[in-house]
Amino acid sequence: MARSRLPLWRRISQIFFLLLFLGLLFFTSLSLFPGGATEIHLRAPVRLFFEWDPLVALVNALASHALYRGLLWSLLILLPTLFLGRFFCGWICPMGTLQHFVGNLPSETKRGKQRIDSNRYKRWQTSKYVVLLAGLVAACFGSAVIGWLDPFSLLVRSFGLSLLPAFNVAVHAILTPLEHSHIAAIKATGETLHGILQITVLDLRQPHFAQGLILGVLFLAILVASLRVTRLWCRSICPLGALLGAVSRWSVLGLHKDPDSCDKCNRCLMHCQGGDDPIGGVPWRKAECLMCMNCVGSCPHNSLVFRFFRKEKEVASPDLGRRRAITGVAAGAALVPLMRANTGMGKSRHERLLRPPGSLDEPGFLSRCIRCGECMKVCPNTALHPTLEQAGIEGLWTPTLVPRIGYCEPSCVLCSEVCPTGAIWQITPKEKGWVVGVGAQQQSQPVRLGTAFYDRSRCLPWAMATDCIVCEEWCPVSPKAIYVQEAQVIDSAGITKTLKQPRIDPSRCVGCGACEYACPLQEHPAVYVTSIGESRSPSSQILLNRK
Predict the structure, then answer these.
(1) Cα–Cα distances in Å, from 165 out to 149, 201, 287, 403?
(2) What does the alpha-carbon distance between residue 358 and residue 503 come to, in Å, rounded to a whole number?
(3) CA dihedral over 242, 247, 253, 258, signed as positive or negative
(4) Which of 80, 120, 179, 284: CA 20 to 30 A from 419?
(5) Beta bridge partners of 488
(6) Residue 527 Ramachandran class (φ > 0 left, ψ -120 to 50 alpha, else beta)
(7) What is the pTM of this model?
C-alpha cells in the first residue's frame, strides 16, 4: 500500500463509522420500530459504540465491582491499541471525526506559522490525564461522573437531546409551508421530501428536552474551539483519549523519522491532528499520536514512515509530573464527598425525582449511569429528561421522569434495553407488571416509580363542584389505582349536585404519571406523582406489607 494513500483510507474509515454512529442514533427511536400492543423492542444494537468504549467498561467495573453485559467487547479496542497505538481516535471515534472535520475548515485565526505552532505539542495536553485520574478515583468511590466527559455520552446527549430535536423543528418549519402550498408542484415536492425524511432521520413526534439549549451550546462551543486549536477536546480533555494514550505507550507500531532526508519544511505539522511532534529533531509523542497518517501523506521526501518494533530512543512518554498526578488523584478523592454533601441520596432528595422503571437504588444508579441520554432519546412519550438540581450535582444530566411532559408507557421497557451500563436493569413488560395479561395478574409486586397524590384545593370535583374524571380514565393499571366515589356537593349557586370525586389507592398506583399528564389544569396539576413508594428504595415506602 502506498504511504500517500493512508490518509485516504483513514477518511473512508472515519466517514463509515460516523455514518454508523448516526444511523444507530436514529434507530434509537420508537417511531422507527413500533412493536405490538403489549411489547415494544428496538431492532438495532444502539449500544454498540458504548460496548466498544473501554473507559465505560473500566468505570463500570470500578464503580459497581461488576461488568455489565456487552462491555467486555471493549477489548476489541483496547487490545489492538497495544499494537497499533491510538488508532481508535483517528480512524473510528465519531467525536474525533467531527473535531477533525471542523479543524480542517478554513479559519482566519489559524494560518501558516500560527497553524504550525498550534499543532506542536503543548504542555496543557497532559490535562486529559488529570481528568482521567480524577474520574477513575471517583469511580473507585462509586460514582460514574466521568460520563459527563465520555465522548460517546457527549455525542448522544448533544445530538439526541438537542441537535436532532432542533433539526426536527427546522425541517418542519421549512416543509410545512411547502406542503400547504396551492401550487401542485411545490406541494408535491414538500410532501415527497417530508416522506423521505420521515422514514430516515425525522421523528414522528416533536421531542423537546429540558436543558436542550445548554447541551447544544456546549457541544457547538467544543466544535468552534477546534477552529482555533486543532482537536482541542481530543488533545486536552477527552478521558477516553487519555486512557488509550496511556495504553498505547506499549504499542509496537511507531513513527520512524529519517533525519538525513528531512529538510525541515514542517509540512507534517500543517495537518498533524494530535500534537505529537512528527518533525525531526524532537522526540515523537507516541501517546498523543492519533494515527491519522497526515504526516506520512504530506511528507514530500518520504522521511516519515510507521514501522513495527522500532527503537524507543526517539519516543517521549506522557510527562504528567508528580504534581499533576497528585492533583488528579486528590481531585477524584475529594470530588465525590463534596458532591454527595448535598446530593440528596437519602431522605432529603427531591420528592419529584422519578427514575425510569428498572433503575437501581440511588447509590447504585449513580455508580453506573454515565449520563449518555440513550434512555431519554428512546422514550416514546419524551417522559425522561436530564436532571438539573433534582439529584444534586453528582446526578446532573441523569434521567428523571417528568409526568407533566410525558408519562411512562405501560408496555414500554426501551430505556432498560438501551442502557449500556446497567443503571437501568433490563426488564421485560412481564417483569414491569403494568399490562393486563402480561404481568399485572401474574406478578404481585409490579415495578413502582412512585405514588400519585391529589391537591384537593385545585381538583375540579373537589374544589369547584365541576365534573371531571380525566385522571381516572387515563389510569392504565388494572384494577385502576384511581377510583371515584359519588358525593353530594353544593355549587356557588346553592344547587346540590352529585359528582364523582377521584381518590388514589396507593397499593395499586405505580407512579406512571399518566394522571398528572392528563390533568386539565395546565398551570399546576391537581394530581401529581412523587417518588414515595418506589420499588427501588426500601426506605421510601408508605405502606407496610404484613404477612
Answers:
(1) 22, 11, 37, 19
(2) 27
(3) positive
(4) 80
(5) 498
(6) beta
(7) 0.89
